[in-house]
Structures are given as structure tokens and as C-alpha cells.
Please model this.
Amino acid sequence: MAILAPTSSLSKDSYSFSLHIQSSTIFGSKLKSGEFQQTRFRLFSNSNYPGLTIKASRESLGLTQELKSNKLERVVETEDGSDLFEDMKHRFLSFKKHKYLENLEHYQNLAKGQAPKFLVIGCADSRVCPSTILGFQPGEAFMVRNIANLVPPFESGPSETNAALEFSVNSLEVKNILVVGHSCCGGIRALMSMNDEVDKSSFIQSWVVNGKDARLWTKAAASKLSFDQQCKYCEKESVNRSLLNLLTYPWIEEKVKKGILSVHGGYYDFVDCTFEKWTLDYKEDNLKEKNGRISVKSHLLWS
Model:
């Protein structure tokens, strides 16, 4: 609870008030329960100085905010006091020095346009960044990431994923589409956990239902497995269903049929750090699956 009590002294350029606080923890500063902690704040205003400074007299509260020359500098602190954005700044400057400036001509060419060879559809999971795992450099891969790395079918309507498909295939003319699944996927777990009736108030369920065919096939083919094993099975199966969904887009199927676009699946297991890669074997007479399986080629395991 905070009580603001103005002091008796007021002037044109300075305002002072007391802040009484009854709390257990404030910005990492612990107060004994039941005690009142008084902190004085002073707000300074000067017509000759366009900035504004607000500071707490108790440094342990760690409250500092400054506005100078219409620029706001915000200090973000974690519980241990480390500055996340200070670390981010050093990483950016390291990139600039060791990557950008050492390859200046390449980055200047990228500023004029891009011609990636890959569209990569990956999961939004923070542990599975495709650029880190597969070593993509700037300009090599156009990327879209979503929950559970799903490709909705053409008839599902607009989404950021099929917008990326349209742009990368028709405008950038990528030659390869790679859908990358991964181990311990929370999106697939949500898909496998949901009831047959979708809760339309849930954004997550409304999205992962795009993988319903993978869920149904997994339930039928792996019914004797544990739930965790079913989820792992579905992580790979959903990639294959996404490959089939890609072919529901007329302009993708046309290019695949002509042999100028290839569609690939991938699976990254970060538990033991292995990667599987396979390519959809497109045959016009084999679009309807035989025995519930799609035809693939060049199935490789990197370990």
C-alpha cells in the first residue's frame, strides 16, 4: 500500500512528497512485514533543461528513469541485477565488428535485395532456432516460425504462415521448402491433449487444430504407446502432414510437379542432438497415401 503525502514546501521548480510503503518486496528490496518504509522523491523541472529526471533517494530500490533530449533510456534489471539489454548491446556490437564489418560487401549486397534458396518453417520454441542449428547465414533462408511448425491447408484461409509461403515461393522464388519439427514440442503436446471439440476461446487450440490429421493418425497407429511416446511420434507425423498440406496450394504443387521446387521435412532432437532430414517423393498418382504413409526419399540421419 502506498500513501502520498505532500510536504509543506512547494516552489515553481521543485516539488517534494513522501511515499509511505507497506509491502514485502519492492524491486528486490525486502521490507519487514508490517513496517512502513518512507522514501522521498523529488521532481525537478528546469526551463533551461529539456530533460526530466526522477530518482528515488533509496538506491536499494533500484528505481531510475531518465528522459533526456526526448530520448527515453530504460534500465531493465533481472532479479540478480544483471542488465539484459546491456548484454544484448555487447552481442550486437560483437556481431557488427566480427560479422558485419568483416563481410561488409556481402551485407551491402543484401541491402539491395534477397535471393534465399530456402523457406524454413520452424517452431517458435526458443530452443530450436534454425539459423543456430543448421548454420543459415543472413540471406540464405526466408523463415517463418509458429507454434508447432504447422502448415495449414490452403482452404483454411489467410494466416502469417501462408502469407510467407506466397511471398517466398512466388516473389522470392525459393527452390526448397523445409519444415522442421523438434523434440519436446509443447504445441504438439497441446494438440495431443485436446478434446475432439475445439475450445474456440483458446488461440492455441484454434491454431494447433491444423495438425488434427497428424493427431488422428498418431492415435490410430501408436495407441499402445505411452502419451509421451505418442507425442514424439506425432512430432514427426505432423511434419509429414504439413508437407502434404503444402501441396494443397496450387502454385506450390505446380512448381513441385515441374521439378523446380522441392519439399523437405526435418526433425531436430535436442535431447541427444540429432537431426533427421527427408524429401517428399512427389508422384502425381501417389498424392493419396498408400497404407497411411507418404512417399519420401533421401532420408538421412545426422548425428
